[in-house]
Write a sequence for this structure.
């Protein structure tokens, strides 16, 4: 019993030391969202249990290597150890119960992070190789994600090409974005600052550079930024023409699928498209005039180009003036 008592005391000493050591290492970034508090609570529970399990394994191991080592002059075998049914049942049942408890805690934590606020701010997010664009309800698009503090935001996310994954380390929550569906991501920022959204799913050769700033500000600063951006977007639409269309095409991520140099991407290249004869998947041919270009933006699946799949290009929420400006820009790429 003396050995068991010593091992028990050493386990009680080592467990908090391991926990405090992991905590001092600051392996987790700062908590910048309400959801991060819930996730980190679960993380701390995991670390506490893992610290105990580490001690339970390492203390008897090291203690046995030191106390029960073969002494000089000893040549015989150790005492045989018979099977211990009670011990085997114990170390099977206890881990099983722990797994069940943490399965419940994991489900509870997931549910807490997905509680919906009916007054949440809604922003549309578009992921594509290899960039992000953000559409705001005030009618403009930005390559920066601005969020007000202490207000839940629901991001309606979609991908134009392959699977991407939205991840802001300080928010903790990571969400995959699958082509062909809209995925919700709910977050409530609680700390003013600038962060970075990264793609956490290998998505091609420039995956590592798929980053954009995430800026959390006060409600007043957020409102001021939105007002400024909405006014600039309105002025751009009012100006119209190819230059405005070029900016709008970039803001909406058109370059992710349509190249400007003749390269075949997910969609047909824009280089040399205006005025050309386009072969469609139904066997017909159509002239790439203004009417065709406009329809291809407004209803992208109405006339699918031969060699390209249908249902890939989403329907963008663009005004007639925005569509006209983008068409004007495409018509300069002869």
């Amino acid at each position: 019993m003396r050995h068991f008592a010593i091992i028990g005391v050493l386990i009680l000493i080592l467990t908090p030391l391991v926990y405090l050591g992991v905590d001092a290492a600051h392996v987790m970034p700062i908590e910048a969202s309400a959801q991060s508090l819930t996730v980190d609570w679960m993380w701390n529970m995991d670390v506490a249990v893992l610290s105990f399990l580490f001690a339970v394994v390492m203390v008897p191991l090291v203690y046995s290597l030191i106390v029960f080592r073969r002494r000089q002059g000893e040549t015989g075998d150790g005492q045989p150890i018979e099977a211990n049914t009670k011990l085997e049942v114990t170390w099977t049942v206890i881990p099983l119960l722990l797994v069940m408890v943490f399965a419940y805690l994991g489900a509870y934590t997931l549910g807490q992070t997905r509680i919906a606020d009916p007054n949440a701010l809604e922003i549309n997010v578009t992921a594509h190789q290899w960039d992000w664009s953000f559409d705001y309800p005030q009618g403009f698009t930005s390559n920066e994600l601005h969020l007000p503090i202490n207000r839940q935001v629901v991001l309606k996310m979609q991908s134009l090409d392959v699977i991407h994954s939205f991840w802001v380390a300080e928010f903790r929550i990571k969400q995959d974005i699958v082509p062909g569906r809209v995925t919700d991501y709910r977050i409530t920022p609680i700390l003013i600052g600038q962060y970075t959204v990264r793609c956490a799913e290998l998505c091609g050769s420039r995956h590592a550079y798929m980053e954009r700033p995430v800026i959390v500000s006060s409600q007043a600063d957020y409102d001021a930024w939105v007002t400024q951006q909405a006014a600039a977007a309105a002025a751009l639409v009012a100006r119209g023409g190819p230059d405005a269309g070029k900016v709008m095409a970039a803001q909406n991520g058109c370059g992710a699928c349509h190249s400007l140099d003749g390269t075949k991407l997910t969609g047909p290249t824009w280089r040399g498209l205006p005025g050309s004869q386009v072969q469609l998947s139904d066997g017909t041919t159509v002239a790439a005039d203004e009417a065709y270009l406009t329809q291809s933006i407004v209803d992208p699946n109405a006339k699918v180009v031969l060699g390209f799949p249908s249902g890939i290009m989403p329907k963008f929420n663009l005004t007639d003036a925005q569509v006209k400006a983008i068409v004007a820009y495409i018509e300069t790429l002869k």
